[in-house]
Amino acid sequence: MSRLRFLFLFITCLSSSAVYSQDSAETSDTGPAQMEAETDLQSAAPSAGSEAPEGEGGSSPAEPGTTTTSQAVQEGEVSSEITSPRDSVEAQEEREPKGPIAPKTTDWTTFNGDLAAQKYSPADQITPENVDQLEKVWEIHTGDVSGGSGDLPATVWSATPIYANDTIYLGTPFYRILALDPATGEQKWAYDTKSTLEALTQPALKNRGVTYWEAENPKPDTPCEKRVYIGTMDATLHAVDADSGKPCEDFGKNGVLDVNKWNKTNDRWPLSLLQPPTAYKDKLFIGWAGKDWAWASAPPGSVFAVDARTGELDWQVNFLPADIREKTGTANVWASMSVDEERGILYLPVSSPSPNYWGGNRTEDIPLATSVTAVDTENGKILWSRQLIHHDVWDYDTNSAPTLVDLTVDGEKVPALVQTTKQSMLYVLNRETGEPVFGMDERPVPASDAEGEEVSATQPFAMKPPPSHDFARYPPMNTLANLLSFGECKEMIDGMRYDGLFTPPSEEGTIVYPGTAGGMQWGGGTVDPETGHFYVNTSKVVQTLTLVPRDEYEKDAGGSGNEQGYYPQTGAPYGFKLINWLNSMGLPCWDPPYGTLLAYDLNSGEKLWEVPFGRSKKWGFYGPESWGSPNIGAPVLTAGGVIFIGASMDGRVRAIDPENGDVLWSDIVAAPSVSNPAVYIHDGRQYVAFVAGGNSILSPAVSDQFVVYALPED
């Protein structure tokens, strides 16, 4: 039988049999490892209100996972210790918001729309009733694209367009800035960093956009009172005048700041600036990305606060204790950040230490790693930190800016944030104190049998709002995918270890669900500031991870792709092999859905609905809508009552009804839109803008398309 006939049979059979409930996936037979893991997790988990054991990762007796100790500031560097919350109750009451925290304009001035990372626009012209009339009003192709087959690495373009100063500002994966007319796409100016186009730390050329900043009271006819910044993979930050595109000579050296001059410990690679900095008042907060999975010791995680005009270092915060920085590394902030402008607090999503999948070199407590950490914007002092994973050996980086929202919980006003995660939990915290709004349990988790490893005996579980994944089991093996591959699906996982969430990496192989590709990704979610309703997309991908002893790794290791294959973790006793659970035909070995979109009421902690999102695509064929799709890139919400999102592997952009998840409108773009969209009003007309750049994690298709939609003009 031909491969295409196999595929047709596969799609026909599964589309007729796949059933997915909005509240829970249909149960079916599971393997012995899954059933045993489910029983163990349920019996081990403490009931609500019961006393849980204290965790390994810096927990305090009063509140596991929150750190609040003393610290000092020396020579512009903030240590990885923590102050007590600085504000008195009286001061907090004086600052009580008069209304919910919400965007103040219909501009789209940051990566997440505004500094609260709500991804919400007050624009209301486009509604569920008229969104089906949306039309493409203009598009451009930047020319900055590579499929990776020539002299240049492939491109991954995840930039959020910025609308400010009556202009669209766009960063490209060739590290150029384009300034465009918001109504027509006509180019106003372009700036080229002339950066080295090499994959120094990433498997591809990557850019997530630019930062816009302006002085509090801009002086008329004075250059660089309004600025646009773009970072490069080789660790330079460029500042240009927002009106002309000319370098701001007073910033760094002739408009360029060398961030790598602060890379002084384990400087194995540059501090790549792929995520645009966060601008607040006269400061830029700079995080950076590294080279994942290559070394056991690496540059230690840090965030730099620099003067927005000069680039001079104001303060620096480190997330690893000084006495262990040289033997480990990272725990950096590579994702976007958020700011409570009223309170002057910066919220940092901190990633895991290195190496990612073995921690025998870092058995000491690292309380700030894999955390949400709150920092005083003025001086970098850490106000509180909530650790989400103790001794992270799963690469469960905290990977998106926390979304700030004011809630009413049990009749009380709560200044809150919600942190989405790879492990599919939503952590709703009081953003002044770090205390969980709906509680959190420390639960026993499986032990490790890897050489030198000492995993934490417990991990924090936030079960309200409900996670997007089932922690007791991974999805059942798809019978037809296994039959079509003559038992390959079953053979791939035979003998592998699975004891539920937080099963440690192992030499026999560990089934990981959700894995580094599964769960909620770096886009985060969107919130309605009036209702507290929160919307987020999630991938449901099963992966396997096998630790390979060093002597075997050196002999047997193969190549790697974009977060797939063999990786060395040089300096550790293990390298590893990470793959998605796909058969040799490229078909998923587990039952769908492969991605969903969810809605939550953050005031009550309840899930409102969950629906399959997107359509999977392979060999030019589309899976049924009931399967959903793995996805990258966040939704945005408007006051008109419409969610806009790209994200899926089928190369469509969509408008979604926030009441029920129904698709109201869609259009095909040139490649998966793996970026956060932007919504803006220019000259009285509402626009929705998408970057369609692609990412090889989802699809081999890449593009340089930027496309903008609006309702027809009267």
Word description of this protein:
- With 714 residues, the chain is mainly beta.
- 7% of the residues lie in helices and 30% in strands.
- The protein is built from six helices and 45 strands.
- The strands form twelve sheets. A six-stranded mixed sheet has the order 2-3-19-18-17-16, with no helix packed on it. A five-stranded antiparallel sheet has the order 1-23-22-21-20, with no helix packed on it.
- A hairpin with a 2-residue loop joins strand 24 (403-409) and strand 25.
- It is globular and about 70 Å long.
- Residues 1-64, 68-76 and 83-95 have low confidence and may be disordered.
Question: Which descriptor suits the 3D outline?
Answer: globular
Sheet with the most strands, sense and barrel status: 6 strands, mixed
What is the count of helical runs? 6
Separation of the first and last Cα atoms: 56 Å
How is the largest sheet built, in terms of strand order?
2-3-19-18-17-16
Q: What Rg, in angstroms, do the CA atoms define?
A: 24 Å
What portion of the residues fall into strands of 2 or more residues? 25-35%
The quaternary structure here is: single chain
The secondary-structure class comes to mainly beta
Helix content: under 10%
Residue stretches low in confidence (pLDDT < 50, at least 5 long) are 1-64, 68-76, 83-95
Mean pLDDT: 88
Count the strands?
45
